[in-house]
Amino acid sequence: MKKLLQTNIIETFKKLSEIHSKFTQSELNTVPFEGSWTAGQTTQHIIMASSGFAALFAGHTEGTPRRPDLYVKDLEELFLNFNTKMNAPDFLKPELKDYNKEEQTIKLLEKESDLLTLSEIHDLTLTCLDFQLPGFEKFTILEFIFFALVHAQRHTHQLNEIYKVLKKV
């Protein structure tokens, strides 16, 4: 289970890094169309949503009386349905400002490394008691890591769409 999860982490961040690297510094901070985030804001949102897991996993946990991957399929269906519009909670809304491409590249590498380390050192079957995603029961460590991945995959798709608009592809 850990090796498969770690392969997923590597592949997800590889695809994310590939599209992020295509943007110029200027394009990263260009609004592609009215009502859209910039690529920089989208990337910052991913960084924000991929943060805090070390503290969460080190917090209050308990054994899980259900399958530890019970909500993985639900997360996939929700986040990988690109026809569904979602609104980020306020604490995950990125600031409207110019983002530095190099700084974001480093942060993405750090988030990938963090998730790889956390997936290695923790019992993925434990349920985290200190935070709950709205609309779901409490997640296991596995489900939280999977959330970070499908969330990043969703926004990687969005970054690809922003890139197409900016390049008029």
Write the layout of secondary structure elements.
Blueprint: H1 2-22, H2 25-28, H3 39-49, H4 53-58, E1 61-62, H5 72-79, H6 101-121, E2 127-128, H7 141-167
Antiparallel strand pairs: 1-2
Helix pairs in contact: 1-6, 1-7, 3-6, 3-7, 5-7
> Distance between the terminal alpha carbons, to the nearest Å?
39 Å
Number of domain units: 1
Strand order of the largest sheet: 1-2
E-strand count: 2
Strand content: under 5%
CATH architecture: Up-down Bundle
How would you describe this structure to a colleague?
- The chain is globular.
- It has a two-stranded antiparallel sheet.
- It is mainly α and 169 residues long.
- It is built from 7 helices and 2 strands; from the N terminus they run ααααβααβα.
- It has one domain: Four Helix Bundle (Hemerythrin (Met), subunit A), CATH 1.20.120.
Care to give the gist of this entry?
The chain contains 7 helices and 2 strands, in the order ααααβααβα.
What attributes does this structure have?
single chain; 169 residues; mainly alpha; Four Helix Bundle (Hemerythrin (Met), subunit A); two-stranded antiparallel ribbon; 7 helices
